[in-house]
Amino acid sequence: MPQYENPWTIPNMLSMTRIGLAPVLGYLIIEEDFNIALGVFALAGLTDLLDGFIARNWANQKSALGSALDPLADKILISILYISLTYADLIPVPLTYMIISRDVMLIAAVFYVRYRTLPTPRTLSKYFNPCYATARLKPTFISKVNTAVQLILVAASLAAPVFNYADSIYLQILWCFTAFTTAASAYSYYHYGRKTVQVIKGR
């Protein structure tokens, strides 16, 4: 049986806020309002830091939903940012394609894990009920590094037109490093597989 938990924690609300900021950032980038985009991006980054800090330090704020919602919020934010920055000619198309492809596969895997860990009979109401906690997700170390590197590249790319270094060789080196960590992260999930999922037993 799944564990019944309260999904309305502060970290989960912060993750939802980050998801809500993603399309705002995308719009600002497409409109080339990079100064404001940098500020909104800093706010999104603050929500990411806060939700992790709160979940680690207050046991009643930690949830199985949060273990999936936090990385999902990161992936939605990163996907929209990379698509927008590619549209603005600040990040190359192949890199964005690589990142989006990996994230789509990981999100599909999360939905599959949710389905497989639900008790029978499996219903849509159970599947989409955030109060039913069936599994915790444990990201790999390289995946955490990859998320940090991807966000560093976003910050550097957003700042590039503001501080006039869009053609910098250092930015291009960061593209290559981001591609490497993205590939390594995808392989780590393939290699470790089930070790990244902890099925919750009912109390």
From TrEMBL:
Q: Which UniProt keywords apply?
A: Lipid biosynthesis, Lipid metabolism, Membrane, Mitochondrion, Mitochondrion inner membrane, Phospholipid biosynthesis, Phospholipid metabolism, Transferase, Transmembrane, Transmembrane helix
Query: Membrane topology type, per the record?
Result: Multi-pass membrane protein
EC class: transferase
Query: Which catalytic reaction applies to this protein?
Result: a CDP-1,2-diacyl-sn-glycerol + a 1,2-diacyl-sn-glycero-3-phospho-(1'-sn-glycerol) = a cardiolipin + CMP + H(+)
GO CC terms: mitochondrial inner membrane
Entries under Gene3D superfamilies matching the protein: 1.20.120.1760
Name its cellular compartments.
Mitochondrion inner membrane
Q: Which InterPro entries match?
A: CDP-alcohol_PTase-I (IPR050324), CDP-OH_P_trans (IPR000462), CDP-OH_PTrfase_TM_dom (IPR043130), Phosphatidylglycerol_P_synth (IPR004570)
**A biological-process GO annotation:** cardiolipin biosynthetic process
Any one GO molecular-function label of the UniProt entry: cardiolipin synthase (CMP-forming)
Q: Which residue windows are transmembrane per the record?
A: 99-115, 145-163, 169-190
Q: What is its EC number?
A: 2.7.8.41
Q: Which domain of life is it from?
A: Eukaryota
Q: Name the Pfam families on file.
A: CDP-OH_P_transf
Instruction: Name the job this protein performs.
Output: Catalyzes the synthesis of cardiolipin (CL) (diphosphatidylglycerol) by specifically transferring a phosphatidyl group from CDP-diacylglycerol to phosphatidylglycerol (PG). CL is a key phospholipid in mitochondrial membranes and plays important roles in maintaining the functional integrity and dynamics of mitochondria under both optimal and stress conditions.
The Swiss-Prot or TrEMBL record describes its family as follows: Belongs to the CDP-alcohol phosphatidyltransferase class-I family.
The name under which this protein is listed is Cardiolipin synthase (CMP-forming)
Query: In which organism is this protein found?
Result: Neovison vison
> In the UniProt record, what gene is named as encoding this protein?
CRLS1
